[in-house]
């Protein structure tokens, strides 16, 4: 994820503990540690480790188990929205109703997510994630039942609002890596890059799985399967107590929003989300056919591949450089669309996607660095909330541009403008400058 000087390492003992060890109760360093203070594995220790950084990650005890549970729980993130549209539109014959219900669920989730994350920070992952995931899964099953019985439309809005308790599974996984690798910034960078690749994989495969289940079995099948996967993955993740970060002592810092630099960084995430949301809608409107989904999936495929490669990099870029690269490569779909070739557009989306993972990895690294250790889940969830708000704004703007475009490729100007805005905000506010790790 982030370059070595942009990663969070919660304060720890003066000597590097073994992976998975918890700090001694009541032990707090007098001064926060910067990246330069952190010990790194000795040359002798590095010589005994596998050369492949991803192999080294999963050689650590417990990492395979919690990663498997987290992957299962995150797959539904790309399923719930598509499943809801399929089942509601199929039963009620109204895409407008399906879209409105889905938007209600997203809005409720955006409001509730930071509060759920704060509970996770204060009481631990296992104590909060399991009941929150169970409540969310129950709400999804009730929604599927109401849709199956064609209940009044108002009940769909009411029930979908109760599904907003979903914990941020990706944030909890990143918090585990940050705890396990707190004294190895290179390995933490690789872990964060892997997590971003997992996000892209879930958003590639999730919609395909949801559409397949909804069309082959019954309209509600995708929602039922997603609820089962989400709860099952959360239970498996929570069972891995050896890698769960210890509950950090509470501080008087208040909300992470009060941390210097956090609000400007969230504004950058908001603009970055608009890039993703507008590109999706514009590309779907331009292709407008059964191949639209596979063509658009190439953008996620490019991001997934770039994320894995970025995790192997020894020298990484700063956030302004990543955003500048994104602003440039977002012009590729526009240039490809002007040719009228669907194959060229597919290639343009693949190239454009390659800037996504490095940008997100570096940005989430800054969130980790700025956020106090006792509020890590809350800080990352705020970033995801800002990102989703940007996706919604970008979708609306991209949809308007697609409907009012003076020429077919006009809509592809929106993601370019959003990426340029993100770069301008980052440069103007100084986001990405070296700061000290929060206590």
Automatic annotation (TrEMBL):
Q: Does the keyword NAD apply?
A: no
InterPro entries linked: MFS, MFS_trans_sf
Which key words are in the record? Membrane, Transmembrane, Transmembrane helix
Q: Which residues form a coiled coil?
A: none
Q: What is the lineage of its organism?
A: Bacteria, Bacillati, Actinomycetota, Actinomycetes, Kitasatosporales
Q: Which residues cross the membrane?
A: 71-89, 95-116, 128-145, 151-170, 224-240, 261-285, 291-310, 317-336, 342-367, 379-401, 407-431
Quote the biased-composition stretches of kind Basic and acidic residues, using this chain's numbering.
19-39
Region annotation Disordered: residue ranges? Answer: 1-48
**Record's superkingdom?**
Bacteria
Name the species this protein comes from. Streptomyces gardneri
Cross-referenced Pfam families: MFS_1
What is the designated name of this protein? Answer: Transporter
User: Which molecular-function annotation in GO is an example for this chain?
Assistant: transmembrane transporter activity
């Amino acid at each position: 994820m982030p370059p070595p000087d942009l990663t969070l390492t919660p304060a720890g003992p003066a000597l590097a503990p073994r992976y998975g060890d918890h700090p001694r109760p009541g032990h707090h360093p007098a001064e926060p540690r910067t990246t330069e203070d952190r010990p790194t594995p000795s040359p002798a220790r590095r010589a005994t480790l596998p050369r492949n950084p991803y192999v080294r990650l999963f050689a650590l005890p417990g990492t395979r188990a919690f990663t498997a549970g987290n992957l299962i729980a995150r797959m539904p993130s790309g399923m719930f929205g598509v499943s809801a549209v399929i089942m509601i539109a199929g039963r009620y014959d109204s895409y407008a109703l399906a879209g409105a219900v889905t938007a209600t669920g997203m809005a409720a989730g955006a409001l509730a997510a930071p509060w759920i994350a704060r509970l996770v920070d204060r009481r631990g992952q296992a104590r909060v994630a399991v009941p929150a995931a169970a409540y969310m899964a129950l709400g999804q099953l009730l929604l599927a039942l109401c849709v199956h019985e064609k209940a009044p439309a108002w009940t769909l809005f009411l029930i979908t609002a109760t599904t907003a308790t979903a914990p941020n599974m990706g944030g909890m996984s990143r918090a585990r890596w940050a705890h396990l690798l707190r004294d190895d910034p290179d390995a933490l960078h690789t872990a964060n890059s892997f997590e971003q690749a997992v996000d892209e994989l879930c958003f590639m495969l999730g919609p395909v799985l949801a559409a397949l289940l909804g069309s082959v079995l019954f309209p509600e099948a995708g929602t039922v399967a997603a609820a089962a996967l989400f709860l099952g993955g959360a239970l498996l993740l929570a069972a891995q107590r050896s890698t769960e970060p210890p509950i950090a002592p509470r501080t008087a810092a208040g909300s992470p929003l009060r941390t210097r630099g956090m609000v400007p960084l969230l504004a950058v995430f908001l603009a970055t989300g608009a890039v993703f949301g507008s590109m999706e809608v514009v590309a779907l409107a331009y292709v407008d056919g059964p191949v639209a989904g596979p063509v658009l999936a190439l953008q996620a495929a490019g991001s997934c591949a770039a994320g894995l490669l970025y995790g192997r990099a020894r020298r990484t870029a700063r956030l302004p450089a990543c955003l500048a690269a994104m602003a440039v490569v977002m012009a590729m779909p526009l240039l490809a669309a002007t040719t009228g070739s669907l194959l060229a557009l597919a290639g343009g989306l693949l190239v454009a996607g390659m800037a996504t993972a490095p940008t997100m990895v570096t940005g989430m690294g800054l969130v980790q660095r700025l956020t106090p250790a006792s509020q890590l889940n809350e800080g990352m969830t705020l970033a995801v909330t800002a990102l989703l708000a940007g996706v919604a704004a970008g979708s609306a703007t991209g949809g308007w541009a697609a409907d009012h475009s003076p020429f077919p490729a006009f809509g592809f100007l929106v993601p370019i403008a959003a990426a340029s805005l993100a770069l301008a905000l980052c440069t103007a506010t100084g986001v990405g400058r070296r700061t000290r790790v929060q206590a």
